Amino acid sequence: MQDRYGIDWNGYAGAPFWRKPSINRRVFFRHLGAALGGYFLMPGRPMERVACAAVSPKATAKNCIFILLAGAPSHVDTFDLKEGPWTPASFEPETYGGVRFPRGLLPTLAGQMESLALVRSVRSWAAVHSLAQTWVQIGRNPASAMARISPHVGSVASLELRPHDADPVLPVFVSLNPSGGNPENGYLPPEHAPFYVSPAGTGLANTSHRDGATRLSTRYNLLLELDGDLRGSAPLGAGPAEMASWNAAARRLMYNPDVDRVFTFPVEERTRYGGTAFGNACITARNLLRARLGTRFIQITLGSWDHHVNIYAPNGGVNALGRQLDLGLGTLLADLKADGLLDETLIVAMGEFGRTVGNLNGQNGRDHFLQMSALFAGARIRGGRALGSTDDNGAMTAESGWHRDRDIRPEDIEATIYSALGIDWTTVRHDDPLGRGFEYVTFADRDLFGPVHELWG
Amino acid sequence: MGTLRPAAAVVCLFVGFVHAADCPFTTGSGESALRQARPRLQIAQRLSTLEAAFARRAVMPAAAPAIPRRNVIDVEIFNTLAAHNVTPAALSTDQEFVRRIYLDLTGRIPSPDDVRNFLANGSPGRRDDLIDRLIYSPEFEDRWIMWLGDLLQNASAATNVNRRVGGRDAFYNWIKGSVVANKSLKEIAHEAIAATGNSFDVRTGAANFAVSATTPMGPVQDMYDTMLVRTATAFMGLAYYDCLLCHGGRGHLDQISLWGSRTTRGEAQQMAAFFSRMRIRRDAAAQGEPLYNSYNVTNAPSGTYDLNTNYGNRPNRTPLGNVSNLTPQYRLGGTPAAGANWREAFAAEMTADPMFARNIVNRLWKHFFGLALVDPVDTLDPARLDPSNPPPEPWTLQATHPELLEQLARELTRGGFNLREIVRTITASSAYQLSSRYSGEWKYSSVPLFARHYPRRLEAEEVADAISKATGVMGNYNIGWANPVSWAMQLPETGVPRGAVGNFLDSFFRGNRDTRPRSQSGSILQQLNLMNDTFVLNRIRVSASPTLQAVSRLAGDGAAVDEMFLLFLSRYPDDYERGQAMEYLRKAASPAARNAAIEDLAWACVNKVDFLFSY
Question: Three-state SS across A141-207?
Fold first, then answer.
């Protein structure tokens, strides 16, 4: 069967997209012409968004927690354990219903195994940190034409999930412990930008006025008097003035006991989550979901997993980061399950690529590698298993474990997140500055990428 | 038959992590349009914000008096406006101008006396006189050292290399010495490209530019390539070399750069070959010694760009026909003389290349006008810039004002690449001095025509320094040196100080001179900080602020209010604002209460919309 570009895609299943057939210039311009012509023929105002195909998102999640394991963890030491003479005894590998797992390295997570789906047929497009990290966060090639205006997956989620009738107290998209290079809202309005917090449990900085709440309200009233009625509403009618909206959002955070409860937590709790910055972020994520103040998409960045050297150092390498991840995420899973929040929250933890397999390199480390794994939990996916498998040493996908029968790519994971959140991943928005059309998931109209619904099966 | 092949991923598998995130590689059409759209949209947004803030002061003459054409800029800008049938805004008022010129030239707001003196100056040449005075002021030095530090990406730590505080300081001091001595931009570029020596040594601080070519996880050719990319991006606006050093432009850059589409990988590598004798080695000094962790940049006596790599950050380099060692050839054809120093030869070729002058004036235009003539500034297309030699259909000249870019570039060359002189030319123009207010109907499509001045957000350092200067409470910023600095604009890099002040500055998006560029976006955090951060609250206390103490001693509420507005906003209040503020002060029953009211007024001034903008 040929698509509308006259290309039969069946022969190309599983091929990386640069090996896909390309369209020639004539076809390109014919379709470009048709698209432009069609645009002006559309009745009334052009639609803001068009869903290309009738798809059924899973819609089992209200929230998403995306944990970026920056620096690329070694998949064969964590979610796709491959044992060999290199494996430290302390990993204490164990089998859980067919899933081999380093219980010694990740004991708390092992205790939550029934909630976890370890996806082992994931493959990155690039073994270059900043590039691949951006790739998993925007779900497309950072060097592609749309990339520079492309929003973070969380910003798209914010756009879709932000209530239209009222402004939420907290931004929909909160990014905890950002690493500095994270992509942001792209061309989407600034209210969809990630709200960065590095929580320490001592409240949200600058949400109270040192000189007192009374003094602040006096001062703010003076400011309003000086500005007359200009501050609240812009007289131009072209939407609220940018600064007024930032200020209003800032004021909603201040002296708000609900906000204070989210960002303040006792030492015992911190200890329970590992007493680390990552643990603090996990507590904050849990509190954010409990509080229901508008936040629906939470990214937590944990790095750096770039263990080229001494990966098995007893108090460093994958041991140190594994401990942080284990106590933070493991405790988070347990708490969310106890709250009943886990069923409505999709949790994804992944790096930007994997690490070399087999024996360690000359510096007792592992280098960059395309094959990788991802951890999924929550949102009523079926846990206690691995999806897909790799060959003996973890270098290549052996069984893909899903209907497309090829490696799972960052684009597919992006589509999975959208599907879980009830977002039509084939959406194309036509409000981008280029007027080219912004696809939530690239090539979704050609069904090149799509969600891994097998997670629910 | 051309094909559109989405092969970006292939390439980027190999692109080094140093530049990967910045790789502007694309096959898609219209990327330029897309990248142009962003700064223009931002400008439209700022205009609407400021419009709202000033709506009350609506007295604008419907028919502006004739605007004098003062130099080549005005000829080009106003002719183009006339051709598009767009009326320019009126000239800025002296009050508008004085704040704008102080901020743009020195990064600091004027003091109340500066404003008063300027407004009282009846001389017809007062604006030119002020420009002259400011471009030879020490504050100008601070501001342009920061500008050059951004351009040359001086930071103690970056993704690809750690210069350490020692290298950062030596680099900073070299830049500082260059600006203070009014060294020409040509000389500065030449020294940066050709420098050798130790990176910690103040005398050879320029060598730190070469240190930034360090490229981990690759063969030495990757380092030559990085050096070319950094050099061409900063000094020629040609960031596309990053693409061309992996693959030829044909089939990749066809939609976005005519020059790029005609340039082959081999040609790009011959440019990089000028750096193939450069060596960056870590100094042998042991821990504890002064030069520990420093780098030595040297030139090897021989060597070529060898086409023999099979790993690293870029695709394999293999012989081109029977050529397996490339020697330098400049993009315009020049080759180094026998026995010449290749980096010196490159510096000489490059500073004589029209792209150097074009790049400098285009970047300066961006600084003063908010939107570059070719924006983004690193996407210049050499084949589409010369109006006397226009590109073939369907290409068009790239700059919004092609003739202006050429004339300004020539002006810069004629003036010996003197930064202060070209800055004088730009700021003395009527086009620069237009009001940001516009009385007619404003169309978004007019943005690239410069019919009015575009407001900009203050940069992070400017925000901090404006608060310090208005209150007279100076900073004491620890930068890892013996002597802390008191102005944010004097910081040697954008990664210091850390801690509370650093967070305050970061919220205004000062970037990191590596992966995060400066940005003029707003944010919730900025608003929280302006309202509540101790950086502000500690400074607006009368007990701490000498300027507010002086206000408190002034007789009469009217004088106090005027002084407050001049201190923070560099302008007099309008009648409405004055009435409201005086009423507020009048309600204070005791001297203590009056001081509290002064503090409240100071807080309100910092949080007023126009405080955060240069307009």
Answer: CCCCCCHHHCCCHHHHHHHHHCCCCCCCCCCCEEEECCCCCCCCCCCCCHHHCCEEECCCCECCCCC
CA dist., res. A397 & res. A124, Å (int) = 12
The predicted complex's ipTM stands at: 0.84
Residue B295 three-state SS: strand
DSSP 8-state class, residue B204: G
Element (H, E) at B116: helix B112-120
For residue B579, pLDDT beyond 50: yes
Which residues 6+ apart lie within 8 Å of A173 measured at CB?
Answer: A152, A154, A155, A157, A158, A192, A193, A194, A195, A295, A296, A297, A298, A299
Tell me whether A19 touches chain B (CB under 8 Å).
no
**Best residue in A135, A155, A222, A409 to probe B by mutation, most B CBs within 10 Å?**
A222
| Residue in B212, B208, B217, B225 with CA at minimum distance from that of residue B275 | B225
CB A141 within 8 A of CB A135: yes
pLDDT tens, residue by residue, A312-334: 999 999 999 999 999 999 999 99
> In chain A, positions 352-411, which contact chain B (CB-CB < 8 Å)?
none
Nearest to A250 among B8, B524, B601 (CB): B524
Record the pTM. Answer: 0.79
Distances (CA, A) of B522 to A158, B49, B500, B583: 18, 11, 19, 32
CB B111 within 8 A of CB B103: no
Residues of B in contact with A17 (CB under 8 A): 6, 9
Using the predicted structure, report yes or no on whether residue A43 has a pLDDT greater than 50: no
Chain B CB contacts of A251 under 8 Å are 527
Q: Write the single-letter amino acid at B515.
A: T
When CB atoms are compared, the residue of A16, A181, A220 closest to B515 is A181
Q: What is the dihedral of CA B409, B415, B419, B424, to 10 degrees?
A: -90
DSSP 8-class letter at B212: T
From residue B454, alpha-carbon distances to A325, B92, B151, B426, B439 in Å are 48, 12, 22, 15, 14
- Nearest CA to B106 among B484, B462, B517, B510? B462
Residues paired with residue B614 on neighbouring β-strands, in sequence order: B456
Residue ranges with strand state E in A306-450:
345-350, 354-355, 368-369, 371-378, 385-387, 389-390, 397-399, 427-429, 438-439
CA distance B327 to B458: 46
Buried residues in A315-326 as b, exposed as e (16+ CB within 10 A): eebbbebbbbbb
Q: Reply yes or no on whether the pLDDT at A146 is more than 50.
A: yes
Q: How far apart are CA B533 and CA B526, in angstroms?
A: 10
DSSP class of residue B523? -
What residues does A64 pair with on adjacent strands? Answer: A297, A346
CA distance B78 to B569: 30
Give the three-state DSSP class for B96: helix
Phi, psi of B400 (to 5 degrees): -65, -30
What is the Rg, in whole angstroms, of the alpha carbon atoms belonging to chain A? 23
The pLDDT of residue B48: 72
Of residues A140, A48, A142, the one with CA closest to residue A448: A140
What does the pLDDT average to over B198-222?
93
- Inter-chain CB proximity A131 and B15 less than 8 Å: yes
Whether the CB-CB separation of A402 and A387 falls below 8 Å is answered with yes
Rounded to the nearest angstrom, the gap between the alpha carbon of residue B529 and the centroid of all alpha carbons in its chain is 24
> Does residue B388 carry a pLDDT above 50?
yes
pLDDT band at A238 (very low <50, low <70, confident <90, very high): very low
pLDDT-wise least confident of A299-303, B20-24, B483-487, B606-610 = B20-24
Stretch B32-43: mean pLDDT: 63
What is the 8-class DSSP label of residue B89? P
Q: Residue A120 contacts by C-beta under 8 Å, 6 or more apart in sequence?
A: A75, A79, A80, A373, A386, A387, A388, A389, A390, A397, A401
Gap between the Cα atoms of B369 and B454, Å rounded? 6
